[in-house]
Structure formats: C-alpha cells, structure tokens
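Please fill in the sequence for the structure shown.

STRUCTURE ENCODING:
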C-alpha cells in the first residue's frame, strides 16, 4: 500500500480522484477499437455494435504517450549486475532504438531477430555453446512503443559464460561486424517473406478471445487493409531500414544486465521493494572500443545458409478408400509396434502430427533411471538443435521427452518434409554422440533446474508432493537431484540403448497423410530403436506406474513439509479426495458426476475462500487424474494469513456450506450449470492440434475411448441434483462412506511445522515417509485393456507392411501388454 496509499497521501494526492479523472478524459470512442466475432451475419454484428457501443462519447482526445527516451544517457553504456533469488544466469544486451511502428512493410526488426537469434550452424548461439558459455539465446524487440523501441539479445548462460561475460558480449559484436561486412542478402528477406506468407495462408484457428484481442491491437497501429494480417507478413525489402537499425546496436547505446549468484558480494545497492542487490557501473571506454571495432571475427560465425526444410508440396491427401474417418483406426499391430491413423477430414491443412510412445517402464524404476533418462533426452535434444532449427523456422517441429512409462517422440507441422526430420530425430535418439563438454553443460543446467524447484511457490510444492504420495513409483525432487549429481557420461552411454531396446512402440499419425505414409514413418522408428521383444503380460504390468489407495475415513491422511525456500512466507495446502471407483470401459457414470460436481463447486469455492474469507490470492478447485484412470477432486489454497491446518479446517467448513448451497439451488440454476458442462464437452476442436490432444491421451493411457467427450455429455444430460448430492455424500462429504482424503500441507516461514507429537490420536494418519506409506497400502487395480482389432483402410497399407516385414492382418489375435492377466490378479498380488 506504500505506492497506492501512503505516498500519494503524503503528496496530497487523492488516487481515486486521479483515476476517475483519467477515465473521464480518455474513455473516448476515438481511441478505442472494437472487434466482434460471431456466427451472426455482418449486418447483425453491426447492429450489435451500434446497440451496445454507439453511446460512447467521442472526446477527440490524443492517447497518452510514453516519454521519448525511457533511458537517459546516464543509464546507457552501463553494466547492471543483479543477484537473483533462484539459480539464474543470464546476460541481456538492451539497446534503445527509434520507434519501428511505421516499419510494418519492411520489418527490419524481424530480419535482425531472425539473424541474431538464429540457432543453426554459424550462429552466435552455436559459437557460445561450443565454448561452453551458453545454453540458449533469444533476440528481438522487447518493447515497441509509439516513440521508441528496445531491442534485446538475451543469453541463457552457464557458470563459465558468466565468468566470461565480456567474451559473450564480444561474440555478439563480432557477429554484428560480420553482418555489416557481408550485408543482408535479398534472399534472406525473401525466405522470411515466403515462410510468413505460408504460415499466414495455412494459419490454424485460434481461440476467439485471443484472436479478437490481437485484431483490436492491430487496429491501433496499422492501416485498415493490414488489420487481419497484422505484423505477420513481410512486404518490401529495405536494406536501408535494416542497416539503420543494426547501426544503432552500439556499446554506448546499450545497457548490459548480468544476472547471477556470482554477483553476490560485489554489489553496492539494494532495490527498495524486493531487496534485490545490484550494482550499476560504467562500461569502460576500452571495452566499448573493443566491441565496436572487433580486431578479428571468429571464423565459426557465419550468416545462415538457405533453408532446406521450407515445404513446397501443399497438396492435400485424399481420404482412405473407406471414406472420411470419425475416429482413429489401428492399421498395424505386432508384438513390437501398434500404429494408429486418422486422416484429417476437418481442417484441410497440409500439416500432420506424428506421435510415438516408447513404452519402457525401466525409465522410472529408480531415481537413478529417471535422472539418466532426463539427461539422455536433453542430450538428444541438444544434439539435434542446430540441425532442426531450420525445420523449426519452416514450421516443422520435434520434441523428445521422458514420460511416466517411457519416452515420447513428437514430430509435427507441415507434412512435406516430416519424414526427413523424423528419420534424423530417431537416428539421434538411438545413437547420440554424447560428448563430454555437452554432457557437463546439460548436467549443470539440469541440476540447477532441480535446485530452482526449491523456489517454486508453495502450492506448486504441494501439488508435486501430492503426486509423490499417490503414485508408485514416484521420486522426490531430493532423490532425483541426488541421483543426477552422481550420473556420469559412461552411465549414459550404457543406459540409453539398454532402456530403449525393449520398448513397445505405439504410434499415432494424424493429419494430412495416407495410411501407407503413416506406416512408413512408424517403421522408421521401430526399425531404428527397438532390437528386442518388449516385455509382455505380467512382466509389463508389474513395471507400470500404479496408484496407491488412500485409507478410508473422515480425516484421511496428511503429509506435512516445510517450504523448501526458508524465506518463503506463504503456506499452502492441497486437499485431494480420491474417487477409487473407476468407470469401466465404455462407461462414464463416475467421471460425468465428478465433472458436474466440480463445475458446481468452482464459483462458490473461489467466492467463499478467496473473496469472502480472503485466505489468499491462490484458491483453486478442480479435477486431477492420476494414472490408471483414477480421478481426484482437489482443493488448493495458498495463504500468508493462516497455517495449513487452519486452511484444512476452512476447506472442510466450505464443504459443509457447499452441500447446503447445492441442496437449496433452484432447478433452473442447476439445469443452467449442467448445460454449461454439456456445452463444454461438445465444443469442437478448433485446429488439428486440439483434435490430436483429444486422441493421443486415449492411446497413452491404453483406454482407446475415442470420441468420449460427446458420450460423456450424454451422461451429464441425464444427471439430476439428487445424483450429484448422492455422489458428494458418497465420496467427499465429511461422513462419506467412501471418503479417501489426502491433505498435503506446506508450511511457510510464518508458521512452524508441527512435529508428529502435536497431532492427537484419532486424527489423520500422518505420512512421515511417502515410500513407507505407499509400501504399506494397497494399489488400485490397473484398468482392463480393451481388445483391439486392426483395420484395413486401403491396399497400400498391406503393401507397405509387407515391404517393412510387418503385418496388418485384421484377424490377428490381440496381444496387449497385461492382457493375459486374469481378472483380479493384479489386485490380489498388490494386497
């Protein structure tokens, strides 16, 4: 309140009066822009605009402007050293430039961003990585106002990079010297122009709110004929505009900001509000001269080569001979490989998504395995970065990551050259170079990333600990960090091939592709990665991640931890109610009831706990799904005014209030809320990725309930208030017969963490050690895996399968992992 109340009062300023004066002066039609988006006709939309907005007065005011020079000369040609709270290491170069708002036809800032921020061979980042100084880099205008622009190059550094900060800056200026000597060739602009035109032509639909906001913003700065294109297109090549901008990137016009723990002990000032320690000093004339006129340019620094990944084939593939596809079809199956395919018959874009899951539970069977998997994936990603950067610019992307039960590989974007990128990614995944300098840099980055989790907000720590208590196996941050610190390069060289060789591969190809292309891509992965038969049946099921069944009872169990950051004042709680009953295959009774219940909970929960009781800014309620289709109702509160035990009491009091609230709710209000849930379920995907994101989890979870949203919507339609009250009384209410509660409590510095003796007998079961808790409680059974049948979509599928040595026979008996388990075997063995 110092700036909002105390300081204004000292100066005799009535802040509310000033705000009202500002509103009265500038709330004017001439400085507003309006965008209406809807299914109505243009005439109807225009009528709505006139009806609701015509009364806004046009006061013919000029909008307020930022000052022309946000930096004074005394603040440029400087170095600012900052001590962060987290393990953060960065060097940012910021230059004050003239406004670029009128340069929308030539976009010189975009050309400079493209060149300085490039990550391919010859780039600034490539050289900095080779020297072990950086992990990442970005470049571009960070603030473009009417009167000025700030252009920045930000480098994510290693410890060695911080120690050589002057060398890092020198590399940037050497690249600028190279750029000045060689000049920007017209083909660079033409390449950027062509990619931008391609992306605009095939742009997917975005969310209405995002789209209308972007258009309204464009209307403030651009002529009417460019309102829809905005800044997305390039029109005219102007070497003069590019040179004018690049010539202003000089040391005397620059502010250098160095953020690192290494600055500790060298600062001489402290920021007023957050207590951040810093030092501001002049850049020496000698340094400025060295940077302005480099004595030599490192030969590794080169301007980008022409992009070989720019697609030229935008032809749309015909649907399979069987016709348009409503759901994915399983087009190939054997002991090693399952291939799902869905042709895009909705969005008509020359794009495809290739998703592969390599199921190999060994990646998560110990903290060491998890640490090695994370490092291995990061090493693969790093090795591919320079090669794949050109593809990324051209709208074709990849991602490799560790997941709960294996490795996930994604390649997505324009389909023309997708197979080229996929092949390179898979080859690297199977046999990365694993050099020692890269290993050391990636390991250091990963360790610091895990350490930074100590500074995450308490509610985020509660969420991580909730999963730690519920899933088996699951490893704490401390365990993962300890394991990571011991991993060597030799460990990684042995681990990678071993962990992948028994992978069961499941693939989805969705978009502009044929069944034969889908199978060919899947065989690229299968033939390169796996070399041994995957584990089957009991062996595979025994290695899968499972969910621990919480004990029955009104108090449930509690897991209490001190916030990892000793300076953190906030406390937090996550209360989870486990719904141990699961929907059978094809059923939606449980999930439909929980969806509607938590929709009804959301508004009163926020209103009571945040608005009325003011427990804290973060109040959240919703659903969290664990592995094996286990659903949970969750309540999260973060607070500086109450300890977690008190927060638990307030959540329990809210549940009592909510039951009365729901019981007295009118039938009309209940029906309105029910319809809102139905409408959300029936909302159509707006682009290919959204549709893929509905399909892929069904494959990952082994559920294969494609098209489940409208099916569950039909169940929601039938639910009555009595149904929801009965569900609440069965699973969540204080006296619920099936109440299984976990309260994860994170204590901030204001409230001491109570010891076990402070908890009275008969209260909640206290978890001292999640591992002991999980070992002493039963695991919920894995859901049954449905029988699967391959489908023949066209004759070319069989031909491609035969060429690859596989089969797509539709009468082949299903052999799914765990399918030969007898009903109840998993449950009895777990008990």
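FILLED IN BY: designer on duty
SEQUENCE:
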């Amino acid at each position: 309140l110092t700036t909002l109340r105390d300081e204004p009062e000292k100066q005799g300023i009535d802040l509310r009066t000033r705000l009202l004066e500002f509103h009265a002066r500038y709330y004017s039609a001439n400085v507003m822009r309006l965008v209406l988006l809807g299914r109505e006709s243009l005439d109807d939309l225009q009528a709505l605009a006139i009806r609701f907005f015509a009364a806004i007065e046009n006061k013919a005011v000029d909008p307020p402007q930022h000052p022309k020079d946000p930096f004074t000369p005394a603040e440029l040609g400087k170095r600012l050293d900052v001590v962060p709270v987290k393990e953060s290491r960065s060097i940012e170069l910021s230059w004050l430039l003239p406004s670029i708002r009128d340069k929308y036809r030539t976009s010189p800032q975009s050309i400079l961003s493209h060149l300085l921020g490039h990550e391919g061979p010859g780039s600034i980042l490539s050289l900095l990585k080779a020297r072990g100084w950086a992990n990442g880099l970005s470049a571009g205008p960070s603030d473009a106002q009417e009167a000025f622009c700030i252009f920045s190059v930000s480098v994510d550094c290693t410890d060695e990079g911080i120690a050589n900060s002057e060398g890092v800056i020198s590399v940037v200026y050497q690249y600028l010297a190279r750029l000045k000597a060689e000049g920007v060739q017209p083909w660079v602009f033409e390449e950027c122009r062509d990619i931008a035109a391609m992306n605009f032509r095939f742009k997917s639909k975005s969310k209405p709110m995002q789209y209308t906001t972007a258009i309204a913003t464009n209307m403030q700065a651009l002529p009417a004929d460019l309102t829809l294109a905005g800044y997305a297109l390039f029109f005219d090549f102007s070497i003069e505009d590019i040179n004018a901008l690049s010539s202003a990137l000089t040391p005397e016009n620059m502010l250098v900001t160095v953020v690192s723990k290494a600055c500790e002990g060298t600062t001489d000032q402290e920021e007023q509000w957050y207590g951040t320690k810093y030092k501001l000093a002049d850049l020496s004339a000698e340094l400025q001269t060295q940077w302005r006129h480099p004595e030599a340019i490192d030969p590794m620094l080169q301007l980008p080569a022409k992009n070989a990944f720019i697609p030229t084939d935008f032809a749309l593939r015909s649907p399979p001979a069987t016709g348009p596809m409503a759901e994915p079809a399983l087009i190939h199956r054997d002991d090693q490989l399952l291939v799902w395919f869905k042709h895009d018959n909705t969005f008509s874009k020359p794009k495809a998504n290739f998703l592969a899951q390599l199921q190999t539970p060994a990646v998560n069977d110990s903290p060491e395995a998890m640490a090695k998997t994370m490092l291995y994936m990061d090493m693969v990603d790093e090795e591919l970065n320079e090669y794949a950067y050109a593809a990324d610019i051209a709208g074709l992307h990849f991602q490799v990551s560790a997941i709960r039960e294996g490795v996930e590989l994604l390649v997505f974007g324009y389909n023309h050259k997708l197979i080229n990128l996929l092949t390179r990614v898979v080859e690297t995944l199977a046999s990365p170079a694993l050099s020692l300098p890269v290993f050391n840099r990636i390991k250091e980055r990963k360790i610091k990333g895990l350490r930074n989790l100590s500074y995450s907000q308490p509610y985020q720590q509660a969420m991580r600990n909730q999963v730690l208590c519920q899933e088996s196996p699951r490893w704490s941050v401390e365990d993962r960090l300890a394991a990571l610190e011991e991993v060597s390069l030799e460990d990684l060289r042995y681990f990678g091939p071993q962990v992948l060789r028994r992978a069961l591969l499941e693939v989805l190809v969705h978009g502009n592709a044929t069944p034969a292309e889908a199978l060919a891509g899947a065989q690229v992965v299968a033939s390169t990665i796996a070399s041994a038969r995957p584990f089957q049946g009991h062996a595979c099921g025994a290695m899968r991640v499972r969910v621990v069944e919480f004990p029955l009872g009104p108090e449930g169990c509690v897991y209490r931890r001190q916030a990892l950051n000793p300076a953190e004042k906030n406390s937090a709680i996550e209360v989870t109610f486990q719904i141990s009953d699961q929907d059978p295959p094809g059923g939606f009774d449980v999930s439909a009831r929980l969806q509607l219940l938590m929709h009804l909970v959301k508004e009163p929960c926020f209103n009571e706990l945040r608005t009325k009781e003011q427990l804290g800014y973060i109040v959240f309620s919703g659903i969290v799904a664990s592995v094996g289709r286990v659903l949970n109702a969750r309540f999260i509160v973060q607070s500086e005014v109450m300890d977690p035990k008190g927060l638990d009491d307030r959540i329990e009091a809210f549940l009592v209030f909510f039951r009365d609230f729901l019981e007295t709710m009118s039938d009309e209000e209940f029906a309105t809320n029910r319809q809102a849930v139905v409408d959300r379920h029936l909302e159509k995907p707006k682009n290919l990725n959204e549709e893929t994101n509905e399909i892929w989890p069904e494959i990952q979870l082994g559920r294969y309930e494609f098209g489940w949203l409208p099916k569950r919507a039909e169940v929601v339609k039938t639910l009555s208030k009595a149904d929801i009250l009965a569900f609440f009384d069965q699973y969540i209410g204080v006296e619920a017969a099936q109440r299984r509660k976990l309260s994860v409590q994170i204590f901030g510095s204001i409230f001491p963490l109570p010891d076990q003796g402070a908890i009275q007998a008969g209260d909640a079961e206290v978890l001292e050690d999640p591992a002991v808790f999980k070992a002493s409680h039963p695991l919920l059974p894995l859901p049954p895996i449905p029988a699967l049948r391959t489908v023949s979509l066209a004759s070319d599928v069989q031909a491609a399968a035969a060429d690859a040595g596989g089969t797509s026979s539709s009468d082949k008996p299903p052999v799914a992992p765990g399918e030969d388990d007898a009903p109840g075997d998993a449950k009895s063995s777990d008990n």
